[in-house]
Amino acid sequence: MTDSDIRAERPTVGGPADRDANAKATDRPARRRKANRRSSSRKKASEKQPRHPGTPQKAQSGHEDGPPKAEFRKPRKRKRRGRGRVFARDGEQTAAAGSGQQAKATTRKHAEAVTFSAAAGSEATNDAFAALDLGTNNCRLLIAVPSKPGRFRVVDAFSRIVRLGEGLSASGRLSEAAMDRAVEALKACAGKLQGRSIKRQRLIATEACRAAENGAEFLQRVRSETGLDLEIIDRGTEARLAVAGCSPLVTRDTDGVVLFDIGGGSSEIALVDLSRRRSGRLADHIVSWTSLPVGVVTLAERFGGRDVTPEIFQAMVDDVLGHLARFKGKDRLAHLIKGKNFHLLGTSGTVTTIAGIHLGLARYDRRRVDGLWMENRDVDAMIETLLGWDFEARRQNACIGNDRADLVLAGCAILEAIRQTWPSERLRVADRGLREGILTELMADSGAWRRGGSRQKRPAHEKAR
């Protein structure tokens, strides 16, 4: 058939047949455009098919044969721009297989489903964990929710100096005044716990209640007046929890560390060997530990804490050295002490006070103190400075205050004895300890950082990025 024959077969322009033909020609590209959006395979097939020379209406529409090449590149461009949008990536992949409207609906459904799952995980973190530590000198509480693996976010805290062990070394009993102070602090802690949705908690008492004749009687009073059920932990558990609480401050290149917690009635020391294969829990690498029956309160009561001369200070150091000499496992890190990857790690009010004074803080700031590295000469300088201050000068310092002014030099004496036993060029300061260790163990044991706990695993397509 020739071009003239084709032209002859067309109806006269402007007649009814012409209008019908034009309507059909108009409907045909629309129907085919809709069909093209349903299947990307049809788009590709129509793109490859050559245009029929005898159908000028198709050529004029520019759609029946498939979109221009520039339009085919658009989905790929959108995909590249959407690489950072986690929820959109699966939706865009679905769009390639279905119609545009179906793809948009699928994308929205997918995004809503994943967002709901993430929100459900966030709600799960509202179930908090709590740790309370009633020591010889302090009553402390932490309430936290899990965040990243091995980490948590503190949502509430409480700390008060109660001096529960005041006079204990002389009488062997907790005094009425000391118990009253502790009960009042524990009532405040109970109020904080009642105002939260607590998933798991652990409330511990340490040396003062361990050593006191009336320790168990006191805990019964606490239970009846506050509703809190405290447990007395042994010294080994106390040392392990201190190590667990400070584990984030031990770097990966560390071979050995002596971790110590100078308390009010006792001081826990743990030797950690990391020179061999390293596991997830730092406490698994404790090779020896001890609990000295001396703390800042007991030592200050024996030697005096207000007016401390260099001679009195040295007598304190010698007393602690005598206890350390009886520690049979003190040489378990002898092969690592001279290496560059060995250091001391201290968690107590003593070391944080020294760090705050070293930094010249007008007001104590935990964010600047926790994790601070101090050189050996810096620690020497701070101890000498404190020895040169009288009681009033210590009391007026913002990092010491009235409550610690008569205890800080006793703590320095314990620190000095530890430094002489395990010489190290570096000391790392930790403003953390038992409570953080309790929280870490509670969250790990409850699976808070596993799938289905507070943390959701990343989708497979996100891991691949």
TrEMBL record:
The UniProt annotation puts the region (Disordered) at 1-109
Give the Ppx/GppA phosphatase N-terminal domain ranges: 148-443
Basic and acidic residues biased stretches: 1-10, 17-29, 61-73
InterPro entries assigned:
ATPase_NBD (IPR043129), GppA/Ppx_hydrolase (IPR050273), Ppx_GppA_N (IPR003695)
Q: Name one GO molecular function term.
A: pyrophosphatase activity
Domain of life of the source: Bacteria
* One Pfam family per UniProt: Ppx-GppA
User: Composition bias, kind Basic residues: at what positions?
Assistant: 30-43, 74-86
Protein's name in the database: Exopolyphosphatase
